[in-house]
Design goal:
Order of helices and strands: HHHEEHEEEHEEEHEHE
Largest sheet: 8 strands, mixed
Number of strands: 10
CATH class of the largest domain: Alpha Beta
Distance between the termini: 25 Å
Structural class: alpha/beta
Helix content: 25-40%
Strand order of the largest sheet: 3-4-2-5-6-7-8-10
Shape: globular
Length: about 200
């Protein structure tokens, strides 16, 4: 917690400095917001599933997209949407649709795709697999055929199975871990800022 607050202070002072220069970039804004979420979490968050938990996770998913670069060839057309896919059972309900409405990553708006079929996984940019997904391992392995899909999950064995980002609880706050070896097998470019905020796990 002390480390996170220290990081938050660094980002804050950097933000103030850049704002004074009228050049506070989107990436710094997102980094600052992500640090604040990590440091202070959600005031009513518990380990039980709740709307609050998935509001926070939805915010994380949005901020992840600000720190990851996909090959331009994965967008059709060139200014096509960034597809955020969630397999069933979808724990977000309408949270993602509401939160990401009108938001974008560069020239790309968001398209939320609920319960994509296996044949549609290759069109996803982000694939979220909830812990209650009945065929988690099979769906995750099917995604390996597509090297431009960022896989995010919450099951304890997610990273061990080859997933890239896993949510976990620590001191009643949501954290995230990154399997850097799994990321290296893809064509995705992950910002060093995001890696510094994550717990790095190489199962």
């Amino acid at each position: 917690m002390i480390i996170l607050i220290a990081i938050a202070q660094v980002f804050f002072h950097k933000a103030v400095h850049v704002v004074n220069q009228q050049a506070f970039s989107r990436e710094w804004k997102c980094a600052f917001l992500l640090v604040m979420t990590l440091a202070f979490g959600h005031p009513n968050l518990s380990q039980a599933d709740s709307p609050g938990e998935y509001q926070v996770k939805a915010a994380f998913l949005y901020h992840f997209t600000q720190f990851i670069e996909w090959p331009q060839s994965h967008f059709t057309p060139d200014d096509g949407p960034l597809q955020l896919c969630v397999v069933e059972p979808d724990p977000f309900g309408s949270i993602l649709d509401t939160m990401l409405n009108g938001k974008s990553v560069g020239a790309h708006g968001f398209l939320i795709k609920h319960n994509p079929s296996t044949s549609e996984l290759g069109h996803c940019h982000v694939l979220f697999l909830p812990k209650a997904h009945g065929s988690l391992k099979a769906t995750l392995r099917a995604s390996f055929a597509h090297t431009n899909v960022l896989t995010v999950g919450e099951d304890e064995s997610f990273l061990e199975e080859g997933g890239m980002i896993q949510f976990f609880f620590e001191n009643q706050k949501i954290r995230f871990a990154i399997n850097s070896e799994a990321v290296k097998l893809t064509q995705l470019k992950v910002s060093a800022k995001l890696l510094r905020l994550a717990k790095i796990v190489n199962p």
